[in-house]
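During the no-cost extension, the postdoctoral fellow (Dr. R.K.) reprocessed legacy sequence entries with the updated structure-token encoder. One reprocessed record is reproduced below for audit purposes.
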Amino acid sequence: MKGRMTVTIAPTRDRVRILATTLGRDVLKAVLPPVETAHRRAATTLLEALSLWHGQPLSVVLSADAPERGCAMGLLDGLDFGESTLFYEVTLAVEEHGRRPSLRGLGEFADLRRLALLTEASR
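Re-encoded structure tokens follow.
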């Protein structure tokens, strides 16, 4: 039996990091160019495709350093609430200030993993 997939997305000024986990295992890690360089439907299409591949809706945790990046990705509405669709439900997580992990290669994504676990525990 497969568990629900959690996708944690952290867009910043210079990149977008994505970590997808299911049953405590990493199933996808990505570092993509900034939101401003992507098609306006890129994030929502990616999440829909992951949901279809996985065969169930996703839990999405958005950790945006600026809410307008989440809106630009189509994951937040105009009031900074997470979008909810047939394919995914978005929860906005606020990143702790002063803690910026350094990444080597794709990195460990410990901060995104921690946000995903905190969000799952609060449901």
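The chain has one domain: 6-121. Residues 16 and 32 are 5 Å apart (CA to CA). The remaining legacy entries will be reprocessed before the final report is submitted.
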